[in-house]
Amino acid sequence: MPSFQIPDSLWGRMAAPKVDNGETAHRVVSSTDWHSLLAVVVARDYGTTEELGHFPTGTLLRADLSGVTATMSGLIDIRLQVQDLTGNAIELLLEPAFAVVAPPRSRAVRH
Q1: How many CB atoms lie within 10 A of CB 80?
Q2: Contact 24, 63 (CB under 8 A)
């Protein structure tokens, strides 16, 4: 399952971004219709390196693409949009992010 991290640094301290004001979506390449994906927070790691004992990684989210790969084929785009606590926003487009290829059909063979 693909996952992605959303870090936000505030004066040397990792601050929690406003994840609830984000969007994850997918579409088939050449389509204009984006379809929402549910991104679930699986971990949060904030603070300073001194507090945590390691470099903070931010918020880790995971999106299940099994529904996309089971029902679509071809090249698939992914869009991630996130806004932090101060209102800074970023949009990341992966065009294409991955390809879904139908498995080859097997044919019965007579012996």
Answers
A1: 20
A2: yes
| E-assigned strand segments in 46-83 | 58-63, 74-83
Asked, for residue 73, whether it belongs to a domain, the answer is: yes
State which amino acid sits at residue 93. Answer: L
What does each of the 111 residues of the chain score in pLDDT, given as a tens digit? 555 566 655 555 666 665 555 688 989 998 999 999 888 878 778 778 888 888 877 777 788 888 888 888 899 999 988 777 777 778 889 999 999 987 777 777 776
Does any domain span residue 75?
A: yes
**Per the domain annotation, does 33 fall within a domain?**
yes
The distance of Cα 33 from the centroid of its chain, to the nearest Å, equals: 18
CA atoms 34, 78, 90, 37: torsion sign = positive
Structural domain span for residue 17 = 3-100
Q: Is residue 20 part of a domain?
A: yes
How many domains does the chain divide into? 1
